[in-house]
Design a protein that fits this description.
With about 160 residues, the protein is of the alpha+beta class. It is about 40% helix and about 35% strand. The chain is built from 3 helices and 5 strands; from the N terminus they run H-E-H-E-E-E-H-E. The chain is elongated, with a radius of gyration of 23 Å.
């Protein structure tokens, strides 16, 4: 006598799993276009780093549109560097970036901080630029996650 009972239950279980997975709506159901990126700071290349970071994060999540979609505007609220410690090996600084993201009556603020060590002035300029590039990418990912997960943040 052939037993098909365990195979049938296995098949039913697989069909349920596939059916539940196929019935989900994708997490990325919205697309956005990048609007203005404004900054009153003198950090060289910061606006472009934020613009490319947001565009890359949207593209990675298949949520980037050239036009015809809700526009995301980004404002740099603060970009500052502060010396935190000094040693014979160099001086350590903390770079801090704070941005505001606004779209369709929603807005949110994001901030992050990153430390870097400077040995000389030439290396210090490159380390500072690298710190702000990294902060721009991190905050762009945070902002896109906020946009796409539907968190309503501050309603205007």
């Amino acid at each position: 006598m052939v037993r098909t009972f365990p195979v049938n239950w296995l098949m039913v279980g697989c069909m349920l799993l596939v059916g539940c997975r196929a019935g989900r709506t994708p997490a990325t159901s919205s697309v956005y276009a990048l609007g203005q990126v404004v900054s009153s700071t003198s950090e060289a290349g910061l606006e472009e780093a934020i613009r490319s970071g947001v565009a890359a994060a949207l593209t990675e999540r298949a949520a980037f549109a050239e036009s015809g979609a809700p526009v995301i505007d980004v404002a740099v609220l603060a970009a500052a560097v502060q010396a935190t410690s000094a040693s014979p090996a160099g001086q350590t600084f903390a770079a801090r970036l704070q941005i505001s993201v606004r779209t369709e009556g929603r807005s949110a603020q994001f901030s992050s901080e990153r430390s870097y060590t400077v040995i000389d002035d030439i290396q210090g300029q490159a380390a500072r630029a690298s710190a702000f590039d990294g902060l721009s990418s991190t905050l762009a990912l945070d902002a896109v996650e906020w946009l796409l997960t539907g968190d309503r943040g501050e309603d205007e």
